[in-house]
Amino acid sequence: MRISQSYIILREVRFHAFHGVMPQERKVGADFTVSLRVGVDLSLPAESDDVADTLNYATLYEVVKQQMEIPSQLLEHVAGRIGKAVMDTFPQVTGVDVTLTKLNPPMGADCAGASVELHLINDKTKV
């Protein structure tokens, strides 16, 4: 057996944060979700059953949490920072898909949220 692609995934992690263009958004905050799909070779931990051989998803969460605590105007900026921080923290990562959603955005529409999605490639790894 050979693993052709593998990922660590965090789905819809919820945060209350202070991102937005409007002053009120930066003052009272809003609810957000972050989903990540992190490309990383998981063939060794699939065999070894040793946590030291994998990318620890609790540490991955802490990286995302730190970036969500820094206020920004644009979701695009926050998502880009999250992707960069993941690759800086885990150099073995080959790529990151980041989806950042603002729940109940202030745009006068009844919707589940407004999102940005970035697909980032770590050009420091061999893909």
Key terms:
elongated, 29% strand, alpha+beta, four-stranded antiparallel sheet, 31% helix, 127 residues, GTP Cyclohydrolase I, domain 2, 4 helices
Sheet having the most strands: 4 strands, antiparallel
**Largest beta sheet: strand ordering:** 1-2-3-4
Order of helices and strands: EHEHHHEE
CATH superfamily grouping? GTP cyclohydrolase I, C-terminal domain/NADPH-dependent 7-cyano-7-deazaguanine reductase, N-terminal domain
* Tally of strands: 4
How would you classify the quaternary structure? single chain
The low-confidence parts are: none
Average residue-wise pLDDT: 94
The top level CATH class name: Alpha Beta
Beta-strand residue fraction: 25-35%
Q: Output the structural class.
A: alpha+beta
- Please compute the radius of gyration using only Cα atoms: 16 Å
The CATH architecture can be named as 2-Layer Sandwich
Helical fraction: 25-40%
Q: Please report the distance between the alpha carbons of the first and last residues.
A: 20 Å
User: What do we call the CATH topology?
Assistant: GTP Cyclohydrolase I, domain 2
